[in-house]
Amino acid sequence: MTSDQPTSTTADLVISAGRVIDPVTGSDAPGWVAVHDGRISAVGDDSARPPEAISNLDYPDGILLPGLIDLHAHPGLGDGRYGIDPDIHMLSRGSTTVLSQGDAGARNWDRYKEEVIGTRKTRIRMALHIGRNGESNPEGPFTKPEFADADECVAAIKEDDSGAIWGITVNTSVMTCGPSDPHEILNRALEAAEVTDLPLLFGPRRAPGWALEDQLPLLRPGDVFTYCSDPSETTLVRDGRIRDCVREARERGILFDLGHGPVAINYMALGVMNNEGFLPDTISSDVYSFHLGQEQPHDLPHVMSKMRAAGVSESDIWPRVTVRPAEVLGLQEEIGTLKPGSCADLSVLRWDEGPYVHADLEGADRTGGMYRPVITVRGGELIEPLG
Q1: CA-closest candidate to residue 30, choices 50, 8, 47
Q2: Which of 37, 243, 247, 321 has a CA between 20 and 30 Å from the CA of residue 89?
Q3: 302 close to 287: Cβ distance less than 8 angstroms
Q4: CA 157 to chain centre
Q5: ω into residue 221 within 30 of 0, thus cis?
């Protein structure tokens, strides 16, 4: 990596780091990134002189990446079961872009746009909940079957001009569906997705009675299956190998997202997935109110650390938190890359050797280091770590 742009002009900011990584090009070397007017203006390695800048930051032990993208999280402001302040718990922890898993539905979408998206620096995209009130009901979104309203969902999407709605979400778990029929709930979500031609973020049914082999064929190319390392009936691994129905789903274009959540991660399953070259397409935190107050802050760098503890290589981790979720969101020309001209969303991390204990749901803990957020840049603006 030499300089990608002439370096004679003045920049607002130059950040230098011991490792500058662009998963799009595969570059990983000491270097720098220059920022001007909220865009990346130039990128170079140690052989190229950076431009003069108003502000210069140097992190010799830092890892400079495109801003991290969390494809499954719960940004909110307390009006719901799960939502937490994204600027405190996501942006300041390295995630410049997050996809909300249904923190709003058709009836509170306008309010969510105004009070959350409109007041926060984090770039937020929405998987609109098929439940008309999203996750705002403390008893769950489907306490009555009619709350899964395809017509209201479609109308809200067609009336929206914000560009912030990515798709639709539905979680068919027992905890979410309550007494409602999960088959009918999913059918209504698929109906809305078909009419609007939008993808679905799908949380599977974990309880016996609805086999994964029967759930996956209902999904369409471009739909995202989350919680894919959950050690339950819906795990992608059985008898030490990737299940045939899972391979068939990926061949049809179904995407798989980690969706860590409380501890929805299984090192045995991840080991099989890693060995068979079948890692999740994206790595996400599913950070929500459950994680507040924990001794170890839960964020996307934390989940990346657990993936590394599971034996996943850094070169496999980087794209799954940058360019690949950017592609899923249709934003790959704007974020997920260090290409000059793209938005100046940047994350600087450092590797803390620890060792730390990284838990999974089965108690098969691993020890290893931890990626720590150092500084985040969102659209050219410096964001200090908080929380």
Answers
A1: 47
A2: 37
A3: no
A4: 22
A5: no
Of the CA atoms within 13 Å of residue 2, those in its CB half-sphere come to 3
Q: Tell me the angle at which helices 150-159 and 182-196 cross, rounded to the nearest 10 degrees.
A: 30
Phi, psi of 189 (to 5 degrees): -65, -40
Q: Which of 115, 45, 48 is nearest to 86 (CA)?
A: 115
Q: Which residue has the tokens 């999740």?
A: 280
What does the alpha-carbon distance between residue 209 and residue 30 come to, in Å, rounded to a whole number? 53
The residues facing 257 across adjacent strands are 282
Contact in structure between 62 and 348 (CB atoms under 8 Å)? yes
Residue 6: pLDDT over 60: no
- Tens-place pLDDT, residues 46-60: 889 999 999 999 999
Query: Are residues 301 and 95 in contact, defined by beta-carbon separation less than 8 angstroms?
Result: no
Q: DSSP state, 131?
A: B
Average pLDDT rounded to a whole number, residues 83-96 = 94
Give 118-164 pLDDT, tens digit per residue: 999 999 999 999 999 888 777 678 778 888 999 999 999 999 999 99
pLDDT at 231: 67
Evaluate whether 32 touches 44 at the Cβ level (below 8 Å).
yes
**Tokens matching residue 165:** 């709605």
289: left (phi over 0), alpha (psi -120 to 50) or beta: alpha
Q: What whole-number distance in Å separates Cα of residue 131 and Cα of residue 161?
A: 21
Question: What phi and psi values does residue 325 have, to the nearest 5 degrees?
Answer: -65, -30
Show the domains of the chain with their CATH numbers: 11-66+342-383 (2.30.40.10), 68-329 (3.20.20.140)
Q: Note the pTM of the prediction, 2 decimals.
A: 0.95
- Residue found by looking up tokens 């997202």 in the block: 257
| pLDDT score of 286 more than 60 | yes
Q: DSSP letters of 147-161?
A: GB-HHHHHHHHHH--
What φ, ψ does residue 10 adopt, rounded to 5°?
-80, 140
Half-sphere exposure of 62 (CA within 13 A, CB side): 22
d(CA 385, CA 387): 7
Return the pLDDT at 234. Answer: 65
**Is the pLDDT assigned to residue 70 strictly greater than 90?**
yes
